[in-house]
Structures are given as structure tokens and as C-alpha cells.
Amino acid sequence: QVQLVESGGGLVQAGGSLRLSCAASGNRFSINIMGWYRQAPGKQRELVATITKSGSINYADSVKGRFTISRDNAKNTVYLQMNSLKPEDTAVYYCHCNIGPLRLDYWGQGTQVTVSS
Known about the structure:
- By secondary structure, the chain is an all-beta fold.
- Strands 2, 4, 5, 6, 9, 10 and 11 form a seven-stranded mixed beta sheet that branches. It has a four-stranded antiparallel beta sheet with strand order 1-3-8-7, with no helix packed on it.
- It is globular and about 45 Å long.
- It starts with a strand and ends with a strand.
């Protein structure tokens, strides 16, 4: 059974930095896409950043230039370095993986990021 374990969330002042990590385990097949999504109170879940197995990256416009996504394929781990954080970045951040030839989707349990002004 595939499990995604996230870590690195917390409380930070505006302008600060946090680094999120998500480690996948239990997968028999390789991970096609790894990424991060977020959901703020009262809002829909939205894409933050994704990275393919070959390293192609996509960012939401709101985080371009501030966030950096990376992955370690050997460790089945994806990272999100978040710099210059703003109060509007406050949300629960979810790790997402798309795995195998059937392209099945898996989600982490979410980690809270709170940015104070």
C-alpha cells in the first residue's frame, strides 16, 4: 500500500522560509509525477508545483520565483523550498504522487503552513 509521509510545515513570519518534504513508500511502480497542492480555509485545493520523473517543472503563478520544487528519485521523495513566504501562503499543503502505468493518484495527509504578518 502506497503511503506518503509529509513533514516540514509550521508557523513562520512573513518573509521567512520553510522546507516541506514528502517521502513515498510501498509503491511497486515508479512515480510519474510528484507535486504539492494547498488548500486554504474556505477555498478549493489548488496546484502549487509539480515535477515529473524527468525533471520537468510546473509552478502556480502565485509562487513563481519564491518556491522551488525538487525530487530525489532514488529516495522517492519530493521537496518544496518556500522562501519569501506571505500570509496568503497560509494553507494545508498536500503531497501528491501519480504512480505507475495506470497513473494512479495518491495524497498525503497534509501539513499546515501558517504565515503570520
